[in-house]
Amino acid sequence: MFQGNQPEGAFMKAVATPGGTGAIRHVVYNYLEEGQKVLIPDWLWEPYCTIADENQRGVETYKMFDKDYRFNYSSIEQKAGELLEQQDNLVTIFNTPAHNPTGYSMSVEDWKKIVEIYKGFAKNKNKKIVLLVDIAYIDYAGPAEKTREFFKLFSGLPGNILVAIAFSMSKSFLVYGMRSGALIGLTSSKEAAEEFFRVNSHSNRGNWSNGSRGAQQLLVDVMKNPDLKLKTDTERNRHMELIMNRADIFIKEAGEVGLTILPYYAGFFITVPAKDPRAITDRLAESNIFAVPMEKGVRFAICAVPTQLISGLATKTKEAFGE
Fold first, then answer.
1. I need a labelling partner for 56 at 20 to 30 A (CA). Which of 97, 207, 250, 287 fits?
2. Number of Cβ within a 10 Å radius of residue 25
3. Residue finishing a domain among 219, 249, 274
4. Residue 135 contacts by C-beta under 8 Å, 6 or more apart in sequence?
5. How many Cβ atoms from other residues are within 10 Å of residue 113's Cβ?
């Protein structure tokens, strides 16, 4: 999991969940009271809102990027501070690396600033703070030892900060539809770690009894067999390289035709900001190009588009803007 980047001095517990989605559900339900809000980015995977709504929680959004499309620490700090004035529990979701829908990956420097911000909030011992890191696409974001470097920054955190990691086993082990994952808790408090395990194990039993046994057995078999592990890593890396090649083609062409895209580093999706996303996707559909309209942009699933069809996509998208 950590590939040599384990935080020092942290107590660690984990529970299996039906995909990363199950892990996110548990954190939203167990670490917020009814009516409280979870802090999420404005560029987001929409089921975050669905999970909150299903569990009678609300959402508050921070601006993920500033006007120059740089990661927006100040918006996170402002929104987190406002929520902590209203509620004693704070859950903030960070979807990284290979963020859905933008493809942005937080750097180690990004994480250093975020950790310092939340350490400041944690000085009020009456507040309980959870950093929920959704790493669904981490194994498609680059070399494992590099994509996991930020985990070391979770060493020596205040006892009232819990880092919760939502891991998608079914993505990382190439069994996408089998719905298996894990919720991993990191904390400097032994009591908080033990509570984490009890509470989330209880939620497992009360919601779905157990996860997919077949997927969990697959994980065990692969990790115990070096040959299977090598074959799995090789196949996954081949898919990752395929997606990155497609992204390179799209990004290069976007630069040539002057199409603005959100910062992309890795992942399944690329997003183009737009004032009228629906109009753009309707125009693209006339050319048999089917993208997803979002609130503030258009999402392209480059994971699903054959490489030979990527060329020309950025040009047609630029034309759809009528510019």
1. 97
2. 24
3. 219
4. 20, 96, 97, 165, 166, 167, 168
5. 16
Instruction: Give the global pTM.
Output: 0.95
DSSP-derived pairing of the beta strands 128-134 and 89-95: parallel
Sign of torsion over alpha carbons 135, 137, 141, 145 = positive
pLDDT tens figures, 9-41: 899 999 999 999 999 999 999 999 999 999 999
Q: Which domain holds residue 114?
A: 11-219
Token pair, residue 169, equals: 């086993």
Q: Please check the confidence at residue 323 and state whether its pLDDT lies above 80.
A: no
Report, as an integer, the average pLDDT of 199-215: 91
189 plus 246 within the same structural domain: no
Q: What is the DSSP string of 153-182?
A: GGTT--TTEEEEEEEEHHHHTT-GGG--EE
Residue type, 12: M
As a dihedral over the C-alpha atoms of residue 66, residue 32, residue 184, residue 233, rounded to 10 degrees, the angle is: -50
Angstrom distance (rounded) from CA 196 to CA 202: 10
Cα separation of 41 and 61, whole Å?
5
Residue 99 has pLDDT above 80, yes or no: yes
Judge if 188 and 70 occupy the same domain.
Answer: yes
Task: Indicate the DSSP class of residue 179.
Answer: -
**191 shares a domain with 98:** yes
Select from 219, 250, 271 the last residue of a domain. Answer: 219
pLDDT at residue 221 is higher than 80: yes
Could you write out the DSSP letters of every residue in 25-45? HHHHHHSS-TT-EEEEESS--
pLDDT digits (tens, 9 = 90+) for 114-154: 999 999 999 999 999 999 999 999 999 999 989 999 999 99
pLDDT at residue 209 above 90? no
User: What single-letter DSSP state applies at residue 164?
Assistant: E
- Judging by beta carbons within 10 Å of its beta carbon (0-12, 13-18, 19+), is residue 221 exposed, middle or buried? exposed
Is residue 1 scored above 80 in pLDDT? no
Question: What is the pLDDT, as a whole number, of residue 6?
Answer: 87
Can you tell me the distance from the alpha carbon of 186 to that of 207, in angstroms, rounded to the nearest whole number?
A: 23
Domain presence at residue 198: yes
Q: What average pLDDT score do residues 202-221 get?
A: 90
